[in-house]
Amino acid sequence: MKAKTFYIETFGCQMNELDSEKAAGLLHARGLCKVASPAEADLVLINTCSVREKAESKVYTRLGELKRLKKERGLLVGVLGCVAQQMGEEMLERSSVADLVVGTHRLHQLPDLVQQVEEEGGRLAQTFFDDAPAPMEIEHVLRESRVRAYVTIMEGCDKSCTFCIVPFTRGRERNRPSDRILDEVHRLADEGYCEILLLGQNVNSYADPSPCGWKFPRLLQAVAQVPGIRRVRFTSPHPIDLSFELIDVINDTPTVCDQVHLPVQSGSDRVLRRMKRLYNRQFYLERVRALKRSPRNIALSTDIIVGFPGETRQDFRDTLSLMDELGYDFVFSFKYSARPRTPALKLKDGVPEEEKAARLLELQEKQKQIQLLLNQRYLGQTVEVLVEGEAKTRWRWSGRTSKNKIVNFDGPGGLMGRFAWVRIEGFGPNSLHGMGVSEPIEIKELVTTERSAPRSDWLQIRR
Ligand code: 5AD
Ligand code: SF4
What we know:
alpha/beta; Rossmann fold; pyruvate-formate lyase- activating enzyme; CATH 2.40.50; 3 domains; five-stranded mixed barrel; binds 5'-deoxyadenosine; binds iron/sulfur cluster
């Protein structure tokens, strides 16, 4: 290939981050070197997200910004990911900057497609979508982290939530055989990774295509038992597939982290029905209560959409009351964004933009207060942190607890990739900070203190 260097920029979810690492691995295997800025690159790739309109429009802004550089340096520009899949050829018409558009099912062909454009000139869109039985296996993944590795177990989604574009951009569910997944995890453990994040658009609907025929709980258990692996997380599960068997595995397997991300989207049964989420508030609450019954005190995070068509003030209040009831450790919250091809496009009673914005603000303010209360309880506690890197703040190190709390702290050198004990001395809504200690002074289960107790149900659930 003519290109010697590449730069890759990623928008969107962890699945996209892993796809970028796979793209980087594929190019690296063909002798290209990854660089840190577009100005040094012969090939610039943008890995895109189309889950909301705002993310999608960023792609065109970014392409526009690359125009001058492309003219000066004659670099090649490629677009990957969900917007590439969704737009195909149209992307080449809409932007003169993109030379190559590679759909989500064509990622493994990236180096060949780059070479084709280099050799033949012109521009190319390759978004052919086949529902092949297995997601592609990519040998070389050029990973960003030396600590936590992402591992695909399935791709695509067979659900049809009415707001979601993913079934169109990622296709139907394709599962990876459990032996391949375990081989990869063993290899990662040998390379020194101690945390694994299992990924899939609908991770807990995993259905092993190998003769083992495992379901997700069994796979999770097997991954958690690989020697050297100290922490396992997974994302994103669908509440309807959160079986009691899975809850038991989470509770009984120490290497599975004390954290579950469980997207609820809304606290109103009426909205959940219109979203076709397949569960109601009661069902969701029962599963969460089962999760929280464990003495492990599992931390819970979620995704919430506000302003879905037809969402009344009362529906929104139902979402707020669910937040009070559960006391989420973290909430990813979004204004509803109409997406091409999705069934919700046909729904009447759209919520005005200002009302959506006001609801989002109200929800985020409430969540901030909940997080402050939860984080306050860590003061004086000693927590175990897996150190992921140097802190971007005034503290020296940054890492996460098993509950996925970000902890910034001061400590000796050489802690990268190691477990450290940190005494918590301060907190904000999104992180804790403190001082590394040579050994845990006191490791208490986080129990509610009278002082920080607001009056709501979730304290009872948390015990
Ligand atoms: N509008 C707003 N948010 C959306 N999400 C998915 N589709 C939309 C949309 N059309 C959110 C959901 C999902 C998360 C990944 O993105 O909350 O769980
Ligand atoms: Fe989208 Fe629903 Fe599938 Fe999640 S489960 S990817 S929200 S369609």
